[in-house]
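User: Could you check the structure of this?
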Amino acid sequence: MTTSTRERIVAESLRLFADRGYAATSVAEIEAAAGLSPGAGGLYRHFRSKEEVLASAIREHIERTRQQVSDVLEEATQYEDRPLEVRLRMTCQAGLAKMREEQDLIRVLFRDLDQFPNLVAEMREGIVNPLYDGIATWLSQQPEFAGSDEDWAAIASILGGAVVNYWLANESMYEPPTRIDEKRFVASWARLGLGLVNLDRAPASS
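Assistant: Sure, the predicted structure tokens are below.
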């Protein structure tokens, strides 16, 4: 599938921003990476500014994430005949895959987020929160949890947060926490999820 000039500009700018930082990346470098004549103003025929390129990248990722969450929830019902532990592992693996997919965008925002609070808010509301909401919805729909009166949003924030933390630690420190490889992490994450089946339903003491 051929990509448009606009798509190339967005993809290459995000890669450069992630590698070098937003401020250190020039418009001419983006143009060269996108196959345009550097310094000739080709970027400005599609975007008003470098910041608008970044904003477009975030909004495209937001739209893709919304569609992915919708598709995953729709397809999840076909796996209900598999053991819950297998489904939990699949969910954890999907979360890690999503983090890898968004790695350039995450690098940019963690490196330069203080410059773009409005874009951070868009990413939080358009990508991060929908992913946590998707986990909560998925958990609440599993047959083994039917009738459970749980705070699925809070549980999703814990399980989802574990995935995010594992990936970020691996990404920023070049190895996972205490050198736990991904296979072990996924297996243990699923075991924690299995514990939800036998939660003590007694009210918590005040």
